[in-house]
């Protein structure tokens, strides 16, 4: 009985230590925020047991209040100051170095904040197309993934000029990050990089 108690206590302490030591992961949504972000729950399902997760809705970070949520309206709102505002808010909210997983506009926000000094252990960015408009890069570790069919992905010339490696996946478009196979791939990449643990997630075939 005493041995069972000791084993249970040891297991509890191990669990507590794991929780305390969990790395922080900041997830930043695409331009739609939580409004069209049910797919984000799949990422949380895979990652929450390994990380202390903070989630940001990119529209909230940018202080956007758009009555008619068309793609054009939302896109223009970020171009016309929203991305800059969101990056400034992220800088104020996150002062300790942590890991980032961000999508499309959200990844552009983190990219811009990192160039201004946001402490980043690493950024895993999926489909941040607007970064192609600037000829500089943040001084942080990052991984960029795009769909081959995304017509707005940065060019190879841009990437070569800045010394950037991009992973381009065939047969996918801009919103590849909502596809279950890509969700699994991204989570596996991130977990292997950060925890050195091989998670039980199937690779993209």
Task: Give a summary of the structure in a few sentences.
The chain is of the alpha/beta class.
Written overview of the protein:
The longest helix has 23 residues, at about 70-95. The protein starts with a helix and ends in a 10-residue tail after the last helix. The model is unreliable at about 1-20 (pLDDT under 50). The protein is built from seven helices and six strands. About 45% of the residues lie in helices and about 15% in strands. Helix 6 (about 155-160) links the parallel strand 5 and strand 6 (about 165-170). A six-stranded parallel sheet has the order 2-1-3-4-5-6, sandwiched between helices. Helix 2 (about 40-45) packs parallel to helix 7 and helix 4 runs parallel beside helix 5. It has one domain (about 25-195): Alpha/Beta hydrolase fold, catalytic domain (Rossmann fold, 3-Layer(aba) Sandwich). The radius of gyration is 18 Å and the shape is globular. The chain is of the alpha/beta class.
